[in-house]
Amino acid sequence: MTEHRPYVLILFYSRHGATRAMAERLAAGVESCPGIEARLRTVPPVSATCEAVDPEIPDAGAVYASLDDLRHCAGLAIGSPTRFGNMAAPLKYFIDGTSELWLGGALVDKPATAFTSTSSLHGGQETTLVSMLLPLLHHGMVYAGLPYSEIELMETTAGGTPYGASHLAGKRSDRPLDEHERHLAFAQGKRVARLALALAASRREAS
Fold it and tell me: Which residues cross the membrane (predicted)?
């Protein structure tokens, strides 16, 4: 990866792997667009034990996100499993620590999107997506959902919303992404990548 090449940061928390699988599909969508890359990052779990210390590098999978990953991104996709209709605490904990970026306007006019996974079909997918949307708006980002030009939104019998891609993981969290869910996650990544390139060019022209 070249240091100056634009990238979409795909920032996620995944407990059982479903949200990670969605993140990987979004990454494939991002990298289907020439001139931009996907950067997969996760966040550490939150512990109720004050003495608990997580390693700086996870044992497997994506590395932990830094503020600089967020600061320098051309676009952002954030993903979380649903926790009672809200984003999971580890992701919110990370976002709550981004005041430095907010004060400097680091994310203003950059595109953002969100994705989620639930165990049950009506398990709060849309409210979770909205919960992730709110801090993005406070950062001045431009939110990009999924348009109904993606016909899979009308055909899906599991995940998929205009607020962002979603996935029905099942009560054991072991149901794989189906064809519609895979397509919508890919399309979402591709859309945020295209917008990231276009908005970056617009900012350069205005400067």
Answer: none
pLDDT tens digits, 112-144: 999 999 999 889 999 999 999 999 999 999 999
- Report pLDDT for 52: 52
Q: For 32-54, what is each residue's pLDDT tens digit?
A: 999 999 999 999 988 666 555 56
DSSP conformation letters of 83-127 = ETTEE-HHHHHHHHT-HHHHHHTTTTT-EEEEEEEESSTTSSHHH
The whole model's pTM is what? 0.92
Q: How far apart are CA 49 and CA 22, in angstroms?
A: 30
